[in-house]
Structure formats: C-alpha cells, structure tokens
Amino acid sequence: MSRIGKKPINLPEGVTVDVSAHNTVTVKGPKGTLTQDVNPDIAVAVEGNQIVVTRPTESKRHKSLHGLYRSLLNNMVIGVSDGYKKELELVGVGYKASNQGQILELSLGYSHNIFFSLPDSIALKTETPKGKNPLVTLEGIDKELIGQVAAKIKSLRKVEPYKGKGVRFVGEIVRRKAGKTAGKK
To answer: Where is the signal peptide, in residue numbers (predicted)?
Structure first.
C-alpha cells in the first residue's frame, strides 16, 4: 500500500469534514472552509475524529491517486486549523515592496514598478525593517494557492547566482558562482 495513503488524517478540535455523494470533500474549521473534488475511484470516509482514504485496486493509477488525495486532504485540514504562511525577501539595492489592500507594488530594478493583484483569500503584509531587506508575507488557508502566488512573485525577478540579487524565500540558500577572475599573469 501507499505509505502516505494508508495513514489516517487526525482531525483537530473545531474541524468538521463532510463527504458528499459526488465525492466532494468539504473541510470547515476556525479559519475558513475548503472543498476538493476527489476521484470517484478513491473512497473517503470519516471515522470518529479521523479521515481514512482507501483505494479499490493495486493498479499504478489507483496507488498514485491514493497518496495524492490523502496529501491534499491533509493540507486542507492543516489549512483550516492553523493556516499557511510564506515569507519572501527582496535582495538587491533599491528593491522595495509596498501594498495598498490586495495590490502589491514591487520595485525590482526594472524601469517601471510592478503592480501585482492578489486573490482576496490571501492576507498580504509588506515591511521594510531598517538595515534589512524588504519582506513580503503571504498568509492563507489554501496551501496550493499560496505556493502558486509566491512562485509567481519569485518569477518576477529570479535570483541570479553571481551577486545573489532577486526575490527569494526567507532562509533560502542560493548557490553562488565565482564569476570572472583577475587578468592572467
């Protein structure tokens, strides 16, 4: 069996799960509600305070779907109970970040500022601590959406390997290259 798929998902207090007849799973918690359509072949059952995901056969397709939907449901349970948070830092001279509501304004060394509109389900916070790089913090309940938005923001100015300038996650390690050496002797 799938090692991930066979593990039951424990439900924290205050989280309720509803499985509809069309195999749509709705997870409600203190932070919000998420829904996920599950493949009809995969069975999802709520037993006590646990979610159990089972598959009908040992075929390769069913094995892969088994682990996938277990992980997606687990991410939903964690999202509605604790939430997710991604922090990005802007490394580079003159790089700035500010926001007006859900619109993120980035100054990343181009001739113009970049205005990036975020979905309403993501909480946005920007700060510029004195003497440090500007920070952009994304918070929400949907792990997939936060990861996608963070990746899109990162792609606006990829980290270059020579000076390390660009948009990166806080704590991300960037492999640096040596660059040119001095003249030959």
So the answer is: none
Per-residue model confidence as pLDDT tens digits over 102-127: 999 999 999 999 999 999 999 999 99
Instruction: Look at phi and psi of residue 181 and say left if phi exceeds 0, alpha if psi is from -120 to 50, else beta.
Output: beta
Q: For residue range 71-105, what is the model confidence (pLDDT) as tens digits?
A: 999 999 999 999 999 999 999 999 999 999 999 99
Q: Name the burial class of residue 43, with classes exposed (0-12), middle (13-18) and buried (19+) by CB atoms within 10 angstroms of its CB.
A: middle
Q: How far apart are CA 11 and CA 32, in angstroms?
A: 15
Rounded to two decimals, the pTM is 0.87
DSSP state of 144: H
Dist CA 74 CA 82 (whole Å): 12
Q: What does the alpha-carbon distance between residue 77 and residue 33 come to, in Å, rounded to a whole number?
A: 10
| Token code pair at residue 105 | 């304004």
**What is d(CA 73, CA 53) in angstroms, rounded to the nearest whole number?**
9
Helices 143-155 & 60-81, crossing angle to 10 degrees?
Answer: 90
